[in-house]
Design goal:
about 725 residues; alpha+beta; 6-stranded antiparallel β-sheet; 17 helices; about 50% helix; flat
Length: about 725
């Protein structure tokens, strides 16, 4: 603001100086014009005919009109300066030489007015010329610009000095202000630093600072007090009523405390009460303060700290609760319990101890000496010291029999404060059990002899079991060998049957087509067609049996190559399209485009072919078959869904097993080898995937073919083959 004020003041001074300069020049121009006109009119009025040039003709001009370097020149008719005011200026010189040859005044005279010209000396000057009658030529009034501005310069200099003095004073005042403000900030920083340290110390100690101005009814809380209660500071001071509303009504109020302080009944305060925190919980606070009088009026202030004692209060409550629970626990135990202090005086005992020894309430008062209480105890008949149970110094255990035939086991242990605790357990039942155990021991001795005889019998049975286990292993090996022989037999038989079937299929196709001539009867053509279809069906069964045999024998090798899953699904659908069309079925596919699958193309065609063939086979006319794909992580799920007759729930576990048939309709026995799902599942497992079936009878079936997008590891393939052999 000071800088803006100085700049504004300088700007105003500059504009004032500029305007004053212009006004000074305008005034000078006006004065010169008036002076020139006055001189010309006076000279023209006083001149007489045939009068000669008078060098004193300018004497009528007052001296105060000639100031600040202004002068007047009077010329003759020949243009030479004949008189001047002040006198002696430009004597024997022409007016042109005095004013300069480039000026237009001597030519245009009063038509030119007052103009700024450059004198022969190079100085700027204001000048004006008037023509006169003879014997005078012209009168000129001239004033140098620098001298015309002399008064303006002196005033401007005074203004600049005043401006500089004002700037200096303002700068000094500003410097003093900033220096004082810096000192104030330093002092505030020190105070803030001290206050932060104090608040930090108070916060770590869960304390708060109070300053209660009793006369004005206002209280000051430190930041640590706000932090302890969870409030935000809205103002520097709090009213008496605001604080009093936070105090729990059962713990008193501040009004009674103020009355006591005002009546000088108390000068110090040490009071515990509850204060409501920002979250609505009650915080126990102990306020310790002292009444002091401060200021000119000696107003009373209650200054002190408030300490959060919630944890101590909770600990005290927990201690009281623990003591009560301990007493309840000691009272509820089934043993007689008694505790003595280091002076052998009674601390406490339970009712079991009192009843066991038939003691009155006066006998078991706390602080009763041991000798007094021992005299009132029922003496024992028999005592047995149990030395083997001593585990530490000052501890002992013994058994005592009371006159009423009850037995007690008394264990005594020293406490850390020098006293000891005694626990008496009623072991009457144990003693009775001990007698029974002795009887049982004799009986057990007799039983041991019987067990020895039984042991020999068990050893003989164990030898027999070992022989049976050995035979089982031999029979298992024979069964596995028979299974391998079966697989090899099926493989060989499949190869042996294919050769004649191929011939039957070929000749039936030739005869059906009539390549070598007509058969002569239409029935023969139908028979050839039936032969071909039956042969193709039989060839398919043999192919399935051969595939299953090769899979079980572990001779199937996967030739994995990248392929588009969409193309493989389309190819499989084309393979069953004609059959589906003949049955009036709708076959659709929803395959994810650009999904690359690493799989054996032949195996994938077989899996999809078997699944689609089953879906078409068991879907009634007008039904739907749909193939969907979903990419799940690093695998591809292919779903083959149909709206067929569904599969009974109890038949689902048998599916996908070799040679397992499930009759969907009792009136239409299921045909086929029962190997389609088994082959599909086995090939899926060889790819590192799997096959799952979900079906609802009468609604349809969903078969999930799960295949990894990338080739599986060798360990996964070996695990899959082991699972198939199993």
């Amino acid at each position: 603001m000071v800088a803006v004020f100085v700049v504004a003041l300088g700007s105003i001074s500059y504009m004032n100086a500029a305007s004053t300069r212009d006004e000074t020049l305008v005034d000078a121009v006006g004065d010169m014009d008036i002076l020139a006109s006055y001189a010309a009119s006076e000279l023209a009025r006083t001149v007489a005919p045939n009068e000669t040039f008078d060098p004193r003709a300018l004497g009528f001009i007052p001296s105060h009109a000639i100031h600040d370097g202004r002068y007047v020149l009077l010329t003759r008719t020949d243009g030479m300066v004949g008189a001047s005011l002040p006198s002696g200026l430009h004597a024997r010189s022409s007016l042109v030489n005095a004013l300069g040859e480039t000026q237009p005044l001597t030519t245009f005279a009063d038509k030119a007015g007052v103009i700024v010209i450059t004198l022969p000396s190079g100085a700027k000057a204001l000048a004006t010329v008037r023509d006169l009658p003879a014997p005078y030529g012209q009168v000129a009034v001239v004033q140098p610009v620098s001298q015309a501005l002399a008064g303006w310069r002196s005033r401007t200099t005074s203004t600049l000095i005043l401006l500089g003095a004002a700037t200096f004073v303002l700068t000094a005042i500003s410097t003093a202000y900033f220096w004082q403000a810096w000192r104030a900030r330093q002092a505030d920083a020190i105070c803030d630093k001290f206050r932060r340290r104090l608040d930090t110390a108070l916060s770590r100690g869960r304390c708060g600072l109070w300053d209660w101005d009793i006369a004005r009814g206002t209280l000051y809380w430190s930041d640590s007090m706000y932090e302890m209660l969870g409030y935000d500071r809205d103002s520097e001071l709090m009213s008496f009523g605001e604080v009093n509303r936070l105090v729990h009504p059962d713990d008193g109020d501040l009004f009674s405390l103020a009355d006591q302080l005002a009546s000088r009944e108390a000068t110090t305060v040490d009071h515990a009460f509850r204060v409501r925190a920002a979250d609505g919980e009650w915080v126990w606070v102990r306020a310790r303060a002292e009444l002091v009088r401060d200021g000119e009026n000696r107003d009373p202030h209650l200054i002190g700290i408030a300490i959060d004692i919630s944890e101590q209060h909770r600990l005290a409550q927990r201690s009281a609760t623990a003591d009560m629970r301990l007493r309840d626990a000691i009272e509820t135990i089934s043993e007689a319990f008694v505790l003595w202090d280091d002076s052998n005086k009674l601390v406490m005992c339970n009712s079991k101890f009192q009843k066991l020894h038939n003691l009155s309430a006066e006998d078991i008062n706390a602080g009763t000496p041991y000798e007094t209480l021992a005299a009132a105890l029922t003496p024992s008949v028999v005592q047995h010291r149990l030395d083997g149970r001593l585990g530490e110094a000052g501890a002992r255990s013994y058994e005592a029999q009371l006159p009423d035939a009850r037995w007690l086991q008394i264990n005594e242990r020293r406490t850390k404060d020098g006293g000891y605790v005694s626990v008496g357990t009623d072991i009457t039942l144990l003693k009775q059990q001990e007698e029974r155990l002795l009887d049982s021991e004799r009986k057990l001795t007799a039983s041991v002899a019987d067990l020895k005889r039984s042991r020999q019998t068990l050893e003989m049975q164990a030898q027999q079991l070992a022989d049976l286990a050995e035979r089982y292993l031999e029979q298992k090996a024979e069964a596995e060998g028979a299974n391998r022989a079966k697989s090899e037999f099926l493989a060989k038989m499949s190869h042996e049957l294919r050769t004649p079937l191929n011939a039957i299929l070929g000749f039936s196709e030739v005869m059906e087509a009539g390549i070598f001539g007509s058969l002569g009867c239409a029935k023969y053509t139908d028979y050839c067609r039936d032969i071909r279809k039956s042969g193709e069906y039989l060839l398919g069964l043999i192919a399935d049996i051969l595939d299953m045999a090769e899979i079980e024998a572990g001779r199937v090798r996967m030739n994995r190559e990248p392929m588009q899953a969409e193309d493989a699904i389309a190819s499989a659908i084309d393979g069953i399209a004609s059959v589906a069309h003949s049955r009036g079925l709708t076959v659709t596919a929803e395959a994810m485009p650009d999904t690359v699958l690493h799989a054996d193309r032949r195996a994938l065609d077989k899996m999809l072919g078997h699944l689609l063939s089953n879906a078409v086979k068991f879907t009634p006319e007008g039904g739907k078959v749909m193939v969907r794909t979903r990419r799940i992580g690093g695998s591809l799920n292919i779903y083959v869904e149909d709206t067929g007759v569904g599969i009974p729930k109890d038949a689902l576990p048998k599916l996908a097993r070799p040679f397992a048939w499930v009759d969907m309709d009792a009136s239409k026995p299921t045909d086929g080898s029962g190997l389609g799902l088994a082959i599909a599942r086995s090939l899926a497992e060889l790819h590192g995937g799997g096959l799952r079936i979900r079906s609802c009878e009468g609604t349809g079936t969903i078969v999930l073919l799960h295949l990894p997008l990338k080739p599986p590891t060798g360990l996964e393939i070996a695990s899959a083959r082991a699972g198939m052999r199993h």
